[in-house]
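Researcher: Please predict.
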Amino acid sequence: MKLFFFAVLLPLLAFPVMLYCIYCPSKQSKAKPKSGTGTSLSELLRNSHRILDWTTELLAASPIHTVTTFMGIVTANPSNVEHILKTRFDNYPKGLRSTTILADFLGRGIFNSDGDHWRIQRKTASLEFNTKTIRTFILSNVRLAVAGRLLRRLSRAAAAREVLDLQELLDRLAFDNVCKVAFDVDPASLIGDEDDEVREFAHAFEDAINLVVERYSHPFLLSWKLKRLLGIGSEGILKKNIAAVHRFAMRVVRSRKEAGAAALGDDLLSRFIAEADYSDEFLRDIVISFVLAGRDTTSATLTWFFWLISTRPAVQERIMGEIRRVRSGRPNPEEGGAFTLDELREMDYLQAALSETLRLYPPVPLQVRECAADDEWPDGTRVAKGRTVMYSSYAMGRMEAIWGADWGEFRPERWLHKDVEFRPMNPFRFPVFHAGPRMCLGKDMAYIQMKAVAASVMEKFEIEVVDKERERQLEYIMILRLKGGLPVRVRERNG
């Protein structure tokens, strides 16, 4: 389930920004000479198919792991990340460019806000994520979706010896879950049982995201704004999609309000309605923001996880041993059934394997901010007011200075204390869940949900990746994904 990767807090679509902003060399750079500099446009074009790995190489080659260019500054230095996300948090808002690009889609929802407006929403959301009822609601939805839908679908595939795209199934599962948790609507996309209104919402949402991405490829706001004003090209289509998304979300908000207190449940929309007399438009923006923030993150991580362990039988066996150990603690372990919250929390090695997956393939590999006032970073880089700044979680996961000489190995043991107990990493060295005031509200629940899916699937099925030797290909628009999906064969485990 994808909702709870708030650390990921709306990937601000850094790939197009990189293409335009990062790599233009400049004589106007204010960084000290020891920092890295951008490269030529011809080099950018030659490496466009491997932009994240190329960026990582540039940052690794810099003595301070920071690259300064004419249009933007990129860093993989933990001290700089802490400075941006905590020490000078108020000096690095999302910025006018990004909030303007997303304004007609997300309004002033929590993931497209800065300052006091963001703080008000953050406070309300943080209170709700700490309640026992919302945690119970989330876990019950995951159990229903996994046991009632995903496992049944995998059983049918196993019986038919069918090759299926596991990435697509996980995407559908996550979309169903995030809609249930956000506003208690079940799209039933995993079983293909959507009604017409929900199907229109899902398709419009998907298309709107893809079209919003195009705005980041425009060097000036005026260029796409003119297309929007004239209602032509991609902006004309985007306007219709946004209208369909807003129409559906507003209908849900108003029907819930009209039904009164008796109709309020444990979903997040109900929680916000009960909290205060927010406007319909504000609640609509909240709903849309939650769905956007959570629709791809955990499914992408789980896809990478199954891909990575497919060639590592020792990792698979240790996870299976942990599942058997947890099951053995039950009075009747042979009965099976959904894992309890306490059982999932006992799975330290599985959490370590998922963390190792996130280190190598963070769902949002690059985060974008804007400098509000002249500043200087701990590594000596000077940042001018209005400058675009970015930190790369993808590059940080590949830094020898952070992870050691074996950074390129998939080794879950690096997360374990005395090879047993899960040990979290300093969030400024591992900023996949953000850090500081914008730290992910649902970090713990994200792990619980991913562990529930991974453990449930692995306990009952052997997942054989088709063509394990296929070259890894990244696909990064909104979320870092495995290009071409993950074709697998499924076999039920004996016993």
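Model: Confidence is low (pLDDT under 50) at residues 1-34.
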